[in-house]
Every structure is written in structure tokens, then in C-alpha cells.
Amino acid sequence: ALPRTEDGWKRLFGLLPPAPKARLDKEDVRSRVDMLSLLERYGIRVRAYGKRGSARCPFHEDRRASFSVDLDRKLWYCFGCSEGGDCFSLVMRLDDCSFVEAVRTLNETY
Hints:
It contains 5 helices and 5 strands. By secondary structure, it is an alpha+beta fold. The two termini are about 30 Å apart.
């Protein structure tokens, strides 16, 4: 499609800098994430009870459910390995990726 404005033509010929890309708002992404479905997507079976849930930790061998999840605040903590964080750190840890990649992954998924 051809540009319809004078600025569009100037950008096309390199006379203006490129238009800024839309930035992802991490709080917007966090508000859309469903922790229960996120954990199930990674094969972690969560036993939910109210606003919380528990599961076996995916980061170490676990005989009992030491992995605790706050479904409303999108937080997790493992009492076995003393690791914890939010939905972004969980994706970073499970996918072995950077924060930016984790935000993009969650934005595409939710």
C-alpha cells in the first residue's frame, strides 16, 4: 500500500526516521495471564484451592507438592528449592530465555 500522507512519503524515501514500534506493557500482559493454564501448558499439574494452588516443582525432584502458586497475584514459590517469582520469571526459567522474550511469549499466548 502506498503512503497517504506527506509524512508517509518522507518515511518511505528515508527523509524521516521510522515510526516508533508499539511497546509491550508488562503490567497489561501480566493482567491477561492465566497462571493455571500457563502451568498446565508446561505440563505442571496444579491442584487449585481458592486463590492458591500447589504442585510438584518442575525445577527439582519432588515427592510432595512444594511448589505454591498465587493465582490472583501471578506469583509462585517453591519451598523445596527456595526459588520464586512472577509469571515472567517462570517462563524465563522454563524456556531458558530473557525477560523480553518471556514478555513476548506471554503476549502471544494470552
